[in-house]
TrEMBL record:
Residues 330-352 have a biased composition (Pro residues). Residues 324-372 are annotated as: Disordered. GO terms for cellular component: extracellular region. InterPro entries: CBM5/12, CBM_sf_5/12, Cellulose/chitin-bd_N, GbpA_2, GlcNAc_Chitin_IntDeg, Ig_E-set. Residues 375-421 form the Chitin-binding type-3 domain. It comes from Deefgea piscis. SUPFAM superfamilies: Carbohydrate binding domain, E set domains. This is Lytic polysaccharide monooxygenase. Residues 1-29 form the signal peptide.
Amino acid sequence: MNKKQLSGLLASSFLVSSGALLMPQMVSAHGSMEVPVSRGLSCFNEGPETLKSAACEAAAATSGKQMLYDWPGVSQLPNGNHQAFVPDGQLCGGGRSDYAGLNLPRTDWATTPIAPDANGNFEFIFNGTAPHQTRDWQLFVTRDGWNPNTALKWADLEKFCTLGNLPVDSNKRYKLQCKLPAKKGQHIIYLVWQRSDSAEAFYSCSDVNFTGGVSTFKELGQIRSAQDLSANTKVTFRLFDQDGRDLESTSTTLGFDSFTGLQTNLAANWPYTLAQQVNSVSKYVSIGVLQSNNTINPVKSTQDNRVYNRSGLAVSYQIDIAAPGGATPTPVPTPTPTAKPSASPTPTPTATPTPTATPTATPVPPTTSPAATCAPAWNTATTYAAPNTKVSYNGRLYSNKWWTAGEVPTASGQWGVWKDLGICK
């Protein structure tokens, strides 16, 4: 987010009405495919400032990192005439120069394995950051024999699903049930979402691998790792039912595993370690990569492991990361973008110092103050929609200044999203 946009956010007021937080929307922030994950959202989930994949680095080098922060905004005003507004070779970026990096013809984009259920259906999930009334949803897939080394063209696509207006759930997700075409191997799923209350439409490319099998699992999302964690960090996978009640909680403490010789706190290893632990005990979900024989195998990767629901229940998950010495997070479900922020504690007035008061031995920066207690641990998969939401990270307490997701808490100064509130006690 550039300084001009950030100044606008800081100048905007946040209002609470009937218990709901009303926030200014990001520019063109309306939505993108989440399952299977779109290119823009996948790169955002890597962390725009900590990109690890070559494809996302190349995309950012082409169009800048701002498009990754604005991942839900790949849009035009075509009023249904999409090919007139989105030229060949520019489909993934919606015909916009500021998203041109998403058009790069590469074979190393993050890829989602997909397979139909026993009835031939697949549930696509669209993350609608700003829900709208819909004229239609259109889903396309690349034709057999398409060339992944050339930028995507309309002639490369065949439509396989059209849906009308759909309800959005409480987490601002649209569920799109479609018959999955009979394909094998690497392809692109292209989505067009045309509003009925506006000429505006949104576009996304999701790179997929058709496994060739049938699946009894439904993907819930990815396990993303942005960085190595400290030894003795405790990582907890928490599963909730549709009402936010706890179903399961599975934890592992990271470090050197003397039995396997694996350094489990490394960025590519801790999702693998957590997945193995969850898979050994969970009644409801499995974590890993979907295989053609309908099994889920964990892999050592910062982005390839996914959470799969095998229970048939409506469930959601959250990952809590507690640094060594940090407080255990209070069990709470993942907050939705409309959650009302917790009231900030009233600071205790400090006594007026006497002229002979002894100064503190170690000076503290003026923007940082000691924290009384630790908040729940920061979670890379959580969207912190409400400003002044407190999280703990590496033994320190932080609060966000505005909407954020996937940005590691640091003392980031005037233009950073996180404010350092001091050491957790």
